[in-house]
Specification:
The complex is a heterodimer of chains A (184) and B (407). With 184 residues, chain A is an alpha+beta fold. Chain A is built from four helices and six strands. In chain A, helix 2 crosses helix 3. Classes of the chains: A alpha+beta (184), B alpha/beta (407).
């Protein structure tokens, strides 16, 4: 392998170091991710992300990130931000692409460009309560990658497959998760 | 109390191979077996099962296959017969259940239901496949459930739909048998290892063996935890390929991993396409390895071939339990060792035994037959030979060191 000559900007040594550290102190692998959401008006909210916990401690992003969440004009809304379901697509594409970079780095594959088109189908009968047989969420999600890299097609396909296997957002979308919503 | 140099726990192929090696090295020993020789082969296998390895691979220390069907696959009665013959002359005590192994002075106390043995060294050969592993998916009461270890034949299950959970060797074979019995079969598939039965005119395991893949050592593979957790190979002990495409041809419905049950609805992962892509790509890489080796080694074989990708349907994400849906479930989700009798601190936080190629951190305590214990073949009958020789050598070294210290 020519790992040392490949630079995808991923610190694989740090990631593998974390895996080794987890072997000694598994509890530091327990993370909590957070977002605080404030209603603005109509379907417009602002979501702020600043802190999380993990590695056995409270952690903070280098700065506070804020995201407007809204719906488009076609929904008789103000379009102050993308829709919640589009954030899901952003999350999936971001997660899989980060994974591709990390796996490529570890496998000694130099990436030149990676582009993903993420698309999801939805039938609005669901969220409008117009047809109980239609679910609220996506009926399917498709991701198409265009990747230019120093690798064969099979190696590139293996990168994409391995990235799905290790992706948190892919797992969140493909498997059920217990969700508890309370009012305090 | 009885005394011996080495107690071997378990008279399966591993324990018997170790006994042969110890005898050859003149190490006084006894093999304790809770049931009869080849106990698991007698009690935890379904009726139609045949070994996944061809007869010529049924090699043990001092035994090679000499029958007239080297490319065939032994059925269970033949495996039991083979091991029973192989045990002739070995110091096996059957019907003796080991209840605990404890450290004691320079060795171990082995408590059994027939008394206590004191031994300088202990070899645990109780197998990798003692207890079925079942995912924590709660099923409503009233649904007949079997594990692959309890399954014998389709007659144990009600007519109607059956869900087989697990796409490795057990799951695909049971799914096929149930489909042929006329049942509507759904197979829940997670990560799996796809293999053709034959490649370029030879058994695929011939390629694994001849190219040296089975001899790959535990201390030389890049990611040992990964290879130790690989699912078993999708094979059947017959001269034909059994994979997900074959099963679809038999009318088996493929779904993703079983991930939950809500009331009477089973939930399956949406990851089936990627699971199949991973297995297809991995198979392609394996065949590339074989081809490259064949070129280097000048192997004469039929032309290189590649297999059609797994045809992945748009899978169902849920299924109804009962009421004309899935009426019974077979868990083919793997097995794990049961080493609860081992009262020696050699376990990690997930209760897996710690060992370096079968050598545990407790001096004089050894384990055999676990996945990739010392080499890729460690869980095969054919892997017991080399592992037993290596560990017997290590054991002799341990005894010699003690002898030198004592003198």
């Amino acid at each position: 392998m020519t790992t040392s000559l490949v630079d995808n900007g991923v610190n694989v040594a740090a990631l593998l170091g974390a895996r080794e550290a987890f072997a000694d102190t598994p509890e530091i692998a327990r993370f909590q991710w957070r977002s605080n959401v404030t209603w603005v008006n109509g379907t417009h909210s602002e979501a702020v992300v600043q802190t999380f916990s993990g590695f056995g401690d409270e952690q903070t992003h280098s700065r506070t990130f804020a995201f407007d969440v809204d719906h488009p004009l076609q929904f008789a809304a103000q379009d102050n931000g993308i829709t919640p379901v589009e954030y899901v697509l952003v999350a999936l594409g971001g997660c899989l692409t980060a994974g591709i970079a990390a796996v490529a780095q570890q496998r000694g594959i130099q990436l030149r460009s990676v582009q993903a088109s993420v698309a999801a189908e939805m039938d609005l009968h669901g969220i409008l309560g117009a047809d109980p047989e239609v679910r609220n969420g996506f009926s399917g999600v498709r991701v198409d990658y265009r990747i230019d890299a120093d690798a064969s097609r099979a190696e590139i396909e293996a990168l994409v497959a391995q990235s799905q296997k290790r992706s948190a957002v892919y797992d969140i979308l493909t498997n059920p998760t217990a969700v508890t919503v309370t009012v305090s | 109390m009885w005394r011996t140099t080495t107690v071997v726990v378990g008279a399966g192929h591993c324990g018997l191979a170790m006994s042969r090696c110890l005898a050859a090295l003149s190490v006084d020993h006894v093999v304790l077996e809770r049931g009869e020789v080849a106990h698991s082969w007698r009690t935890q296998r379904w009726d139609s099962l045949r070994l996944l390895t061809p007869n010529w691979m049924t090699r043990l220390p001092g035994h090679t296959y000499s029958g007239d069907d080297p490319d065939g696959y032994l059925g269970m009665p033949e495996v039991i017969g083979l091991l029973t013959d192989y045990a002739t002359g070995a110091p096996v005590l059957t019907g003796v259940t080991v209840t605990s192994v404890q450290s004691s002075g320079q060795g171990y106390l082995v408590h059994t239901d027939r008394g206590v043995w004191q031994a300088r060294t202990v070899v645990v050969a109780t197998g990798a496949s003692a207890v079925p592993v079942r995912p924590a998916v709660p099923l409503p009461p009233g649904i007949p459930v079997l594990t692959a270890a309890d399954y014998r034949n389709p007659g144990q299950l009600p007519n109607g739909g059956v869900l087989v959970v697990g796409g490795s060797a057990s799951g695909i074979q049971i799914a096929e048998e149930l489909a042929r019995s006329g049942r509507s079969v759904t197979l829940a598939v997670g990560e799996h290892v796809r293999l053709p039965r034959t490649y370029r005119g030879r058994d695929v395991l011939w390629w694994m063996d001849a190219s040296g893949l089975f001899d790959e050592r535990w201390d030389a593979v890049p990611d040992l935890p990964r290879v130790r957790n690989l699912p078993s190979m999708q094979l059947v002990g017959a001269p034909r390929t059994l994979d997900l495409n074959t099963l679809r041809g038999h009318g088996v419905s493929l779904v993703g991993r079983l991930v939950g049950a809500r009331d009477a609805t089973l939930q399956f992962s949406g990851s089936l396409a990627n699971m199949c892509a991973l297995a297809d790509l991995k198979l392609g890489r394996l065949l590339d390895t074989f081809d490259a080796w064949a070129d280097r080694a000048g192997v004469e074989a039929e032309a290189a071939q590649r297999f059609a990708p797994t045809a992945v349907p748009t899978p169902a994400l849920s299924a109804q339990l009962g009421r004309g849906g899935i009426e019974s479930v077979v868990w083919a989700t793997g097995l794990r060792p049961d080493l609860s009798f081992l009262k020696v601190p050699v376990f990690d936080r997930k209760s897996r035994i710690l060992h370096d190629g079968g050598v545990t951190p407790a001096p004089g305590l050894y384990v055999m037959g676990l996945p990739f214990l010392r080499r890729r073949s460690s869980t095969l009958i054919d892997g017991a030979d080399a592992d037993a020789r290596d560990l017997a050598d290590h054991l002799i070294g341990h005894l010699d060191m003690h002898a030198r210290r004592a003198s």
